[in-house]
Amino acid sequence: FMTMKPTARPLHAHRVACNSVPQTVASCTHRCNLGSRLSDFKGSFADARETAFGVGVAAFVGRKRYGRRQLQRSAASNDAPAVCCTLSTQEDWRAAVAEIQAEALYCARSKQKKSFDFGIVHICKYDEASVFDITKALDEALGTNGAFAGAVVNGCAAPCSDGSRQSTTGPALQVTAVQLPEGSASQAAKPFFVGNSQLMEISSLICRIQGQTRVQGGQEMALVRAWRQYLGLEQGEAHPRGILLFIDPLASKYVVRTVLGALDMAFPHAVKCGGVCADVMPGHRGLAVASKEAGDLCEPGVAGILLPPDVSLHSVVSPSSIRVGPELRVTSANGQEIKMMQSEDEIEAQPAADMLRAISKDASPLEKLLIEKSGFLLGLEAPKQLDPYREEVYDDIWGSSKRAPSYASMRKMASGSDWLVRSLEPLPGGSVVIRRDDLKLVPPRVGPAWLRCQLHVFDERQARLELKLMLQRYLGARMTLGRISRPIGALMFTCSAWAANAQSQGESEPGISELEELFGPQLLAATVRVSGEVTPPGVTLGGSMDQRRTTVQGHTASCCVLCYEAE
Q1: What is the pLDDT of residues 104-143, one digit of tens each?
Q2: Could you tell me the sign of the dihedral formed by the alpha carbons of 8, 14, 20, 26, in that order?
Q3: Which residue from 112, 181, 383, 527 has the least number of CB within 10 angstroms?
Q4: What is the pTM of this model?
Q5: CB atoms closer than 10 angstroms to residue 206
Q6: Where are the alpha helices (DSSP H) in 270-377?
């Protein structure tokens, strides 16, 4: 018997066999009696946890303890959405798609509807395959009817089909798909892609709407109405409370700034969350949308999905660096090259490399150790809030109701989330190069003659503490919602350097252990390593009034929590 070779069975047959074990009447009676004796003891604690955090932990009394796989993939009730969050590390992407399809069918096993409403796939290290082909194949396998987006990333981590959690930078597909309840009257998810050609079409649409406004009148700006119409939001439909975004790294700064600003104006109560795709080989594209044709995605741009109104996004941004030295000013820059910098105590500007050496010399012993280990990071001033009606214009000629803030008052208003952190590399000539950003021209032809900046340095210990604090602040912000609902999933967009450093030291992925501490191990969460995090700074809740401007962050851990909030 010990030398017999076991017969291979398909995965679904193994599950059926495991679930069909006979049970005696005595064991069932014992379980019912034990459950009735412990129900009063556990009831008050479960109700309090559900009220305070919106999270309920199922208590399996008298039954065999379930592992992570059974907790994560337990059959949901018909009034709750089904979520598939899985990772496949197959060498062939077609085999990975088949594995993900089988896992998705198992996650929706208790539902009559087997198709999903929307989903995203993070593609890692399938260099020979087309992102569009992978996205299209998963769209057909999961039945999302085009509401499926794909992006190339540097690495990902999520639960696998065998129940274990795996983090990889090799060939892998990570899919997060959501199936809303059948009785939900929610609108369908609306995917989109915007590049240079699409911006020209939207501009012509704005001109047509402006012509109609002169004759018929309108309560909203033509730009807002044009963007909503172009993205497929009909008049009278509910606005989304969450938008998933992915940016091609080759997209110009004008396209990214225009799209993010227009989305903030058109959907002010929606949280925009996502990431910047990884660098790809020449001739390949880093993102795709299943509803578009391959020819429509031939240029770099911004892709995303307008989520149904019943799905809300909550974002939490935590930096991975700390400030070093005083606040500085960039007085001379051209594109990505910073030539001259100036501190607040100096009258004349100095070469950027000399300024870095001076700050490193005056740093504390701990800061010097961190600088020698990882080098400097540069935090740029975050863009101001959008002012479409020009209510904050300070005109010295015609006068205004408010004065322009002084430099001293601007310093007092600055906080850790006001800086967009970027990597620095020194050059032999005394200047430095800032990566993944373009400062254009400093000083510009119009505007201030300098740009605010702040040096940072990577500190993983402080970053972990800050991340835990920000998640606790998020729990407090959830209490302000009218209806607290349990999260159905989470996406952690992290800096590649932070994730790689944590993996090399044998530590957990940034944010995953902190999420499990707050919401329990049953929350489906995936970690994605991106080249930049797209999200508003701080803590932002979908549907709230106080939305901040969406920016491209750097060297942060940005948590995107998905919540089902049906009205």
Answers
A1: 999 998 888 889 999 999 999 898 889 999 999 999 999 9
A2: positive
A3: 112
A4: 0.81
A5: 20
A6: 352-361, 365-374
